[in-house]
Amino acid sequence: MSARWFPRLWRTSTGRFGLIVIAIVALAAVVSLFWTPFDPRASNIGDRWLPPGWPHLLGTDDTGRDILSLLMAGARTTVFVSVGAGLVATVVGIALAALGALTTRIVRETVAVFVDILIAFPVLLIAMMISSVWGGSLWVVIWAVGIGFGVNIARVTRPELRRVQQSDFVLAARASGLTPAQSLVRHLLPNVAPVFIVQLSWSMAVAVLAEAGLSYLGFGASVVEPSWGLLLADLQRYIGVHPLTVIWPGLTITLTVLALNLLGDGLREATDPTLRHRAAETHTPAVVA
Hints:
Elements: H1 5-11, H2 13-31, H3 67-102, H4 105-119, H5 123-134, H6 138-165, H7 168-175, H8 180-217, H9 228-235, H10 243-271, H11 273-283
Helix pairs in contact: 1-10, 2-3, 2-10, 3-4, 3-6, 3-8, 4-6, 5-6, 6-8, 8-9, 8-10, 9-10
């Protein structure tokens, strides 16, 4: 992957939007570690249901907590879950894809059947089943989403690895003495990176949705942890009386998920040379004789 991918990513509208939104969420998560406008856990009955304004820029909830502070603190949970699920999905996806593409036929077919079986189970259902046994926690969400989408990454990446493995430059490298592991790191993974990046961005987006949804249902974050899903569950009871308060956590979740998906599309366009060449041919004016 060339080091010049970032300028190309910034030139795409989807990549630019994704970068800006994700940067804001990450910055809010970091800043909330040492500062928020108000204590997100402190209740003040005298300030309950204040409209947006100064000093509560997004208003307050039914116990007088500042909604902006709650969203900033909830960003920590979102970043933790999405990054954790992304790391688990990366390890699981690469391991299964490598086993399904670079090993003997018996191992490849066994891995393919195993992947097909796991894909049949929805990620959220797996997380709810694990939560019902071990109790709701962020680690349950991370492992459930990471393993679930790691299987999806393996299923999409495995055919690409097989295709690149038959390329002339890979065969020449193997003939020169390169081991399968060295070939995987030096040639195979860099050439399937665009496909892998898109799948990884989707897994992180699903992790955000899974954490919010499971926390909303009571299977995710505990009540003492800040979470956008918990905030949405608390406020949705008053949607008929104070509808504006419900908009903020819902809008935050929607924008974050949208940004992760668009960032993945932008990264694929910036790192995949075939897409760039196709776009260049599309925008190149025809020469009239």
